[in-house]
Amino acid sequence: MKDFIIPTDDRDMGTPARTGAPVTLTIDGFEVTVPDGTSVMRAAAEAGIQVPKLCATDSLEAFGSCRLCVVEIEGRRGTPASCTTPVAEGMVVRTQSGKVQKIRKGVMELYISDHPLDCLTCAANGDCELQDMAGAVGLRDVRYAAPDGGGMETHFQPRTATGPNPQYMPKDESNPYFTYDPAKCIVCSRCVRACEEVQGTFALTIEGRGFDSRVKAGGPADSFLTSDCVSCGACVAACPTATLQEKSVIEMGTPERSVITTCAYCGVGCSFKAELNGDQLVRMVPWKHGKANRGHSCVKGRFAYGYAAHKDRILKPMIREAITDPWQEVSWDEALRFAADRMRGLQEKHGRRSIGVITSSRCTNEETYLVQKLARGVFMNNNTDTCARVCHSPTGYGLGQTFGTSAGTQDFDSVEQTDVVIVIGANPTDGHPVFASRLKKRLRAGAKLIVIDPRRIDLVKSAHIEAAHHLALRPGTNVAVVTALAHVIVTEGLMDEAYIRERCDWDEFSDYAEFVSEARHSPEATEMLTGVPADDLRAAARLFATGGNGAIYYGLGVTEHSQGSTTVIGIANLAMLTGNVGRPGVGVNPLRGQNNVQGSCDMGSFPHELPGYRHVKNADVREIFERAWGVNIDPEPGLRIPNMLDAAVEGTFKGLYCQGEDILQSDPDTKHVASGLAAMECVIVHDLFLNETANYAHVFLPGSSFLEKDGTFTNAERRINRVRKVMAPRNGYADWEVTQLLAQAMGADWAYTHPSQIMDEIAATTPSFAGVTYDLLDAEGSVQWPCNEAHPVGTPLMHVDGFMRGKGRFIRTEYVATEERTGARFPLLLTTGRILSQYNVGAQTRRTENTVWHEADLLEIHPHDAEVRGITEGGWVKLASRSGETALRAHLTDKVSPGVVYTTFHHPDTQANVITTDYSDWATNCPEYKVTAVQVSLSNGPTDWQEDYAAQAAQARRILPAAE
């Protein structure tokens, strides 16, 4: 199989690459120079000589068990394994002598004697390394009979494809995505090692001895589904036979071509080879050259792509006069004309600021850029917002104020050089699992971990890692905890004074140091407020300040608070205090939730900022875009989503174009969102499915999946990755084309013919993207912004020689308690999050086999809280707040502390956001999802509100057939 997009060498070199001084040796008469520490096998591959192998692969450390890769080395006795033998200066190696050929053939005979010879009907036929190696060593027959319960026969018996078969062993087909056939296992241990070295789950072992040895998942009674396996696919990718095989390959056949693209789930931005037969996608394989994932994947990116062909997908445009009417399928021309006429009519009647747009963090940079351009250059206002503000806008504000740029400082590779990691308000194993695997590998190598989270997330303790400290703070007290950490560092003199004097504003530091040194910020003074023992907090602060390279990774548990921006500022202060910005292994790193959260921010989706985070009030910035677009840009900032909804209820905001977002399910205070949408006269939903927001829509424009478009995503490390069209759009148009058609129907003269032209316009108007072109991305694989004349191939590490703003800025972080308080009626605190198998509002993952792991949202409650309420495991409970109520089933666990409950928000029949309030971050309006005062009580089933909601949704989703 050949990649026709990027001509990168995808050969398996046998063992990982090494760095070191050059060493020159001779292999089969050819001189080759490689770094010291390189294996003989890899050196041979560098010289174009392939040594036969089965247990070796370049994604895993050498193991040396198969004995197929033996070579002869002058001056050494025996035939060492080339995978475990390092090169030496002047070494002379022979890989094809008669002696090694005889050994290899004998070894291969033993493998084949214990293997079914059903090659013609095997799912791995044509993609089987055992088959390939049998040919490579010249094996033509097998002298040994298959074992029949008693091992190898004592006499020679020719073995053919119709000869004896190994004893029957049942397949394990419990996993929805792949099968395990133990009869085909050659016990190379590649899957076991991949589970350990790459994924870090340790779910697989080898059981039995001799011919009876096989791979086993979990304990004696476990299957692949019930074991600790997280279905990342690393074992499947590592397997050289059909022992572990994707069910899609079994059903569709071996793929014949591939396209390199980027995953459309979380902010890690994994690169994949989409492998196809014709235009039928057979499987997604993590690309070994992907700079964010380095050949790894998670269950979502690896397997959960079936939603793109799900029966629920809407492929034809639809319109209706009122939201109480059924949908009517129409042509694209009619739908766009209907939408344009409605939106123009609303502006004529209610003013040009009466309509707006919402961009998507799931769509490409190019598509997002066009949507905000639609608002500013066609609607002629700045009413543009995005879910990125709903999750990470405090990152933009906090890091912008302190460092001068609103993005993470490192690349993911940086974690390999860290010594102490703080993970605060994030759950990487569930939300960013590929990064989590890399972090766990570093922790197993000796790095220390501090977890700051109300829940006991998996990183706190598992079979192979354990955090040095878990600061189980009370939800809403992030600022107090972070400031207390700074108090310890400053008052105990643990800060890096030389770094601060050189890189930061000393006067601002002095003011901040005076502030944090106050006794009221000490761990002892804040213990009653935060719930974190003072001794634990002091120990954690000392570890971070003195433990070497210190890195901070944070997520929505930091930003989705009324003081989210203040916490981000506090985190930046901690990094500057300890000198942990500007080199590998350190930094401040936001873990972005969706695939293009960073990009949607970069592209100017906020009502006050044009692309590149430049305020719309600045005439010089507006002039750049006015020249490019040929229009005058409104200098007045527009409305954020909550303001749009408020204005709709008041009667002044009338029309909305919403691309790729489901604000009714994802935004807080569901009842208020529904009221705002219902008050609008034209809601245009542009998406794959009739989502919850579409219940209130008048126009539905079918969207295209990431498999059906060209463009770019920008991940959490500022990495701009190419998205490449794998197949033609099933709806007829990529999303950028739909937005352009709507703009043209509104009178614009847009004439893009390819997304690369949109990127050229982005580069021409946005300094941090000035050097970005599709040609560069194809040549480099990906680049990290800023990418410009000073940094022609991007910037992996930010703030190396100085902060973007000049001197780093320390800012006081005064703790202000949220207005959301517990009391007699609502004594518990609710916080929300995600689970590994599901993604965001679940529109994609709920339409895949991932539902086998998470069929419904559950309420996690501590056994003590459950006992006093009479709640039992799996029982229905009512979850109520000042905003609303819903019902779901309970899960009793000590992962949450007494007084805290937790749920996910993946299923619309739960609608967890009917509970959350409209409180938000003081600086950015980011909703306070993570702190809601609630009560939990017994229930008989869904609430009246849930039943009414389901009835309204069913009514709103009626579709009439297209007119003949």
Give a written overview of the molecule.
One of its GO terms (cellular component) is oxidoreductase complex. Keywords: 2Fe-2S, 4Fe-4S, Iron, Iron-sulfur, Metal-binding, Oxidoreductase, Repeat. In the C-terminal section; belongs to the prokaryotic molybdopterin-containing oxidoreductase family. Belongs to the complex I 75 kDa subunit family. It holds the Pfam family Molybdop_Fe4S4. With 964 residues, this protein is α/β, with parallel strands linked by helices. The protein folds into five domains: 116 residues, Ubiquitin-like (UB roll) (Roll); 151 residues, Alpha-Beta Plaits, CATH 3.30.70.20; 263 residues, Rossmann fold, CATH 3.40.50.740; 198 residues, Dimethylsulfoxide Reductase, domain 2; 129 residues, Barwin-like endoglucanases, CATH 2.40.40.20. It contains 29 helices and 36 strands. The strands form nine sheets. Strands 16-15-24-25-26-13-14-36 form an eight-stranded mixed sheet. The protein has a six-stranded mixed β-barrel with strand order 30-34-31-33-32-35. A five-stranded parallel sheet has the order 19-18-17-20-21.
Number of strands: 36
**CATH architecture descriptor text of the largest domain:** 3-Layer(aba) Sandwich
Give the structural class. alpha/beta
Please state the CA-atom Rg, rounded to the nearest Å: 29 Å
Distance between the termini: 45 Å
